[in-house]
Design brief:
The complex is a heterodimer of chains A (115) and B (111). Chain A contains no helices and ten strands. In chain A, strand 4 and strand 5 form a beta hairpin. Chain A starts with a strand and ends with a strand. In chain B, 0% of the residues lie in helices and 49% in strands. Chain B has no helices and ten strands. Chain B is globular, with a radius of gyration of 14 Å. Chain B is mainly β. The chains are: A mainly beta (115), B mainly beta (111). At the A-B interface, strand 4, strand 5, strand 8 and strand 9 of A face strand 3, strand 4 and strand 9 of B.
């Protein structure tokens, strides 16, 4: 596709369940980013990938959060044992590379609701 | 890690010019300044990027003073469809640097 694709667009699950969020970046983009946006709030950086590597995982809120990227393309963000405070919109972005002048292109996010 | 500060909200009327300023006092030498626009239920959309002085494209201008500790996004002749949240992002797209979005400015354009 032409843009960043995220799935599912909406996810409702019960507290304690695991969820997996998917991001398909723009073809050829080597850098991929995950953010979290709570209702009415700004964007909270979670993690980025350069290729399949994530050099800095310090933005992940807790050890219940993990992310991986395979084949330099699709990425998944996994949240284990979900809590109500995990409810938010999870946004993915990609950029051509990690050069300083490359803007990020965002998907429309996955709206996660924990009951 | 460059922290950014923006006004929480702004109101304007159709046809007016809108200027939104972002403060980033501890911007690093290699940092670029990028502005994004976000509509409800959508991801942010790139508007403009700059390093110093002035940048202009078909939708906006970006003014950056010599000390680079602030930047101003200028939207000429806004319309109702420009009602959105505008974020400035200061950071280096290089390994080891986290990217920081400001809290965003909610622009309301009135008829």
């Amino acid at each position: 596709g032409a843009g960043v694709s995220q799935s599912p667009s909406n996810k409702v699950t019960e507290k304690g369940k695991d969820v997996e969020l998917r991001c398909d970046p723009i073809s050829g983009h080597t850098a991929l980013y995950w953010y979290r946006q709570s209702l009415g709030q700004g964007l909270e950086f979670l993690i980025y990938f350069q290729g399949n590597s994530a050099p800095d995982k310090s933005g992940l809120p807790s050890d219940r959060f993990s992310a991986e990227r395979t084949g330099g393309s699709v990425s998944t963000l996994t949240i284990q044992r979900t809590q109500q405070e995990d409810s938010a919109v999870y946004l993915c972005a990609s950029s051509l590379n990690r050069q300083v002048d490359q803007p990020q292109h965002f998907g429309d996010g996955t709206r996660l609701s924990i009951l | 890690l460059a922290k950014t500060t923006q006004p929480i909200s702004m109101d304007s009327y159709e046809g007016q010019e809108v200027n939104i300023t972002c403060s980033h006092n501890n911007i690093a030498t290699n940092d670029y300044i990028t502005w994004y626009q976000q509509f409800p239920s959508q991801g942010p959309r790139f508007i403009i990027q700059g390093y110093k002085t002035k940048v202009t494209n078909e939708v906006a201008s970006l003014f950056i003073p010599a000390d680079r500790k602030s930047s101003t996004l200028s939207l000429p002749r806004v319309s109702l469809s420009d009602t959105a949240v505008y974020y400035c992002l200061v950071g280096v797209n290089n390994a080891g640097n986290m990217l920081t979005f400001g809290g965003g400015t909610r622009l309301m354009v009135k008829p």
